[in-house]
Write a structure and sequence with these properties.
It is built from 15 helices and two strands. It is mainly α.
Length: 387
């Protein structure tokens, strides 16, 4: 049975550690001019430090170090994976590495994790009446899925608080699953991640002088953590099947949690390919760009996208409670995910061309999300800048 202190201590240590290191990393980034400069595609108006991933990683590691799970062999491999992707992403922030090089490291990291830990997406837990799947299929499926998740998280990192807000939300959902299934090691990782990200999220959203982007280093690291959670849940080696109802669709659950990053990435890349350009060609066609173009603030955009993602999870949960089969749960998640990304973006773009009343309503909602104009926002901003 999991003791509450096993979760609280890593969580608090991670929060305190990130709060302590954040101003020091910020100072170094400014001193060395490691910043993200504004351009026609980016949404910030001034150069902003991009070493937030370093601060978050520091918090995660100290959070894990406050418990004995850091000594478990496969946890060491997970930490090594975080370090490699943090390092590669930070190099990309500074040197602009090629997408091919980044992909090569991502594939290699996931392949090594599978080889060393024997952990992979190797069980569908009843989806389409399929349970364990053969290695020749599970290994490429895991690599493809994990690399997709890593880059999906990286690509939603376009407005303040979105990637880190998503990380907090997803880690809470996965953490609840690990608590129910008595998976103490993964639960402590989730608690440490939440604790480390919360202070950064507050600085990223409310900070003025202390604002820092998490950067490619941080978003790639978050992506690999999300991948590790899913690999653990869908691994044939996991023992959680005895702790949960057999009608809980684990594949639909994982897909619901990752719905917006995964499906928006698929939408953006497929549209680029159809236009005859590289799927890695940067543009302003992501879901967060759409909300910004409608007049939403950064925090309004973040709240809207996270609400869409959470609605998919809640409707999946309702479908399970109402007795839907695992297959039907998946189809519901797929339909909702497509509706919240492909369909929503297409409808908004069509309505914008027609200058319809719907767009005017969206504009009014967007204007209402500019909380930074309100006095309480300014008060919070001054408070966060002092921490």
């Amino acid at each position: 049975m999991i003791q509450i202190q096993q979760i609280i201590i890593p969580f608090l240590v991670a929060i305190i550690s990130t709060l302590w290191i954040h101003p020091k990393v910020l100072k170094i980034a400014k001193m060395k001019n490691i910043v993200d400069n504004p351009d026609a595609r980016k949404l910030q108006r001034r150069p902003t430090p991009v070493m937030g991933g370093v601060a978050v990683f520091f918090g995660i590691i100290l959070g894990l170090s406050s418990s004995q799970i850091i000594l478990v062999n496969y946890i060491f491999i997970y930490v090594a994976a975080m370090i490699v992707l943090l390092y590669i992403g930070t190099m990309d922030d500074i040197l602009n590495l090629s997408p091919k090089l980044r992909f090569s490291f991502e594939i290699a990291v996931i392949a090594i994790i599978i080889l060393v830990t024997d952990n992979s997406i190797s069980n569908f837990y009843g989806l389409w009446s399929i349970y364990e799947i053969p290695t020749w299929f599970s290994v490429p499926l895991t690599i493809f899925s994990a690399v997709g998740i890593i880059n999906g998280i990286n690509l939603i990192d376009g407005v303040n608080g979105l990637s880190t807000g998503f990380c907090i939300m997803a880690s809470v959902l996965f953490g609840i699953f690990f608590y129910i299934t008595d998976n103490i090691a993964m639960l402590i990782i989730a608690a440490s991640v939440i604790g480390a990200v919360i202070p950064f999220f507050l600085h990223n959203v409310f900070g003025n002088e202390t604002r820092m982007f998490i950067g490619d280093g941080g978003s790639l690291m978050i992506g690999v953590i999300m991948s590790l959670f899913i690999m653990d849940i869908l691994s044939a080696c996991s023992s959680h099947s005895i702790a949960i109802d057999g009608n809980v669709g684990l594949v639909p659950f994982c897909l619901a949690v990752m719905s917006i990053p995964v499906f928006d990435t698929v939408r953006v890349m497929s549209q680029r390919i159809l236009r005859g350009v590289s799927p890695f060609h940067a543009d302003k066609t992501h879901l967060h760009h759409m909300f910004i173009s409608l007049g939403f603030s950064h925090i309004g955009t973040t709240m809207s996208i996270l609400s869409l993602n959470m609605s998919v999870v809640l409707i999946w949960w309702a479908s399970y409670l109402l007795g839907a089969s695992i297959d039907i749960q998946l189809y519901i998640v797929l339909c909702l995910s497509i509706l919240c990304t492909f369909v929503l973006y297409a409808v908004v773009e069509y309505k914008k061309k027609k200058e319809s009343r719907t767009i005017k309503i969206f504009n009014k909602i967007g204007e209402a999300t500019h909380f930074e104009k309100k006095g309480i926002w300014k008060t919070t901003e001054r408070l966060i800048d002092k921490i």
